[in-house]
Amino acid sequence: VNRGITGGFAATIPAGTLALRAELSGRTAGNTQTPLGVLPTSQLDGYNGGFGASWAGERGFVGAAVRDYGIRYGVPGTFNGEVIPGGHEGGVEIELRRTALRMEGALFTGVAPFRSVKVDGNFVRFDQDEFELGGPSGPVVGTEYRQYTGTGNLIAPHEHEAGGLLVEGALGLWILGKDFSTAGSNTGSRPARQLALAGFIFEELNWPALHLEVGARYDWTRIDPLDTRPGTIGDVRTRDFGAVSASAAALYQMAPGWTAGVGLSRAFRTPSIEELFSNGPHLANYSFDIGNPDLGAEYGFGTDLFVRSSLPRINGELSVFRNAIRDYIYNAPTGGLDPRFGRFPVYQAEQSDAVLTGFEGRVQWEALQALVLDLSASYVRGTRRGDDGDVPLPMIPPLHGSVGARYDATSYFLGLSLEGAAQQSRTGEFESRSAGYSLLHSAGGIRWTAWGRLNTLTLQANNVLDTAWRDHLSRIKEVAPQPGRNLQLLYRVGF
């Protein structure tokens, strides 16, 4: 696929009631190679590092961690001399950085029915700059995104008996604050602030062969745009949302190693800041996004059924689901180009009733000692319901599956798998179809012990036959295929 190198380490250091952990990794890679040619300006360089500490005592624990992630990667604008729809001819470079601080603590109360009180908080700073390349004066900042997000939870787990039943659960409160801003020469959204509050309850009831879970939650959200000047997208104004969501699930042990279950849910989702107020290009997505400040909240009613096996030589799970969503929000391709530049495909935030149905399953069978066969498949069908009848939703993946075998001995291991997807001919308006594909993957490695440490050397090959294939969800599939043959050599040692 491309030439590069990745390295990293992680270390956990116990010191009595104190534990420390540090992680650091980095990666650099050149342009992506496909079976039909090289994708220019698709290189990347990135790092990921973190440090955390925690203390545990008889009455509770407290911990904190910080993580910093940064990456600079290219977004190709052409392939084999052809301009990708929505692409910048000279390419685009994305510089992204995410810094997160997390704190968590608990006090073991010993006061029935509450076992403890837990508090956690997260603060995240996210920066993304999109540079347009190839200009006469060098890179130009097309768009700058800045987002500060803080969340907090207060949770009180409890446990008690009621009528001979063991009842476990939790009460909790949740808060979120977000500050979103944009800048640059091609700003595509408006700055806004978001405040969200929620309260929830969750309960579990246990019988010898039956397990029940029930939960309920109320959410309230306010999204406040900082720029309310009139525009072409409509009346930009402060929006408030609030609703109750709930779920219930039952798991029944039919026989040793066999469990069946059913779940019912009423879900709720508010539109995002981008879905409400966008009106400009998004270079990383090859799109010109137009929001809708009149969007309402989504309300989903879901049902899922599953059966699960956990036997000495076979493990598997099969689930089917149906989600009926009122006022489903999606970005619909309009078939036109943007009015400002005439080169970005336009995607409009729209809302309609929809139904999503599908299944997913996986089976792992130890056919012989150390030989495991693995089979998996998933499928989803999305339909929009409107005055013009039932219409396929856009950006729905096709039937996907894989079959593989792995032999895992003490000193070595080998694996071979075949991954495939069917063609996607059930597409939304102005959405192109995609052909099916099959990819062969393989892996092998050895293990040995030296100086008291376990060493592992793995060689992995993805898309062994260098097949040209296209991902239906890719915005560039009409011009460029996905990566070709990819070889990875990994050495790992544990301390």
Q: Could you say which structural class the secondary elements and strand pairing correspond to?
A: mainly beta
How many helix segments? 1
Low-confidence stretches: none
How much helix, percentage-wise, in residues?
under 10%
Total number of strands: 28
Major beta sheet summary: 24 strands, mixed
Strand content: over 45%
3D structure, described in words:
The strands form 3 sheets. The protein has a 24-stranded mixed beta sheet that branches. A two-stranded antiparallel ribbon has the order 3-4. It is mostly beta strands and 495 residues long. It is globular, with a radius of gyration of 26 Å. It has one helix at residues 273-277; strands at 4-15, 18-29, 32-34, 37-39, 44-56, 60-75, 78-79, 82-83, 92-111, 114-132, 140-162, 165-183, 192-206, 210-225, 239-255, 258-269, 279-282, 287-290, 298-310, 314-337, 345-368, 371-386, 389-392, 400-408, 412-421, 437-450, 453-462, 486-493. It has 1 helix and 28 strands. Among the domains are: 1-135 and 148-153; 416-495, no CATH class. Helix content is 1%, strand content 69%. The mean pLDDT is 93.
Descriptive labels:
1 helix, single chain, mainly beta, two-stranded antiparallel sheet, 69% strand, 495 residues, 24-stranded mixed beta sheet, globular
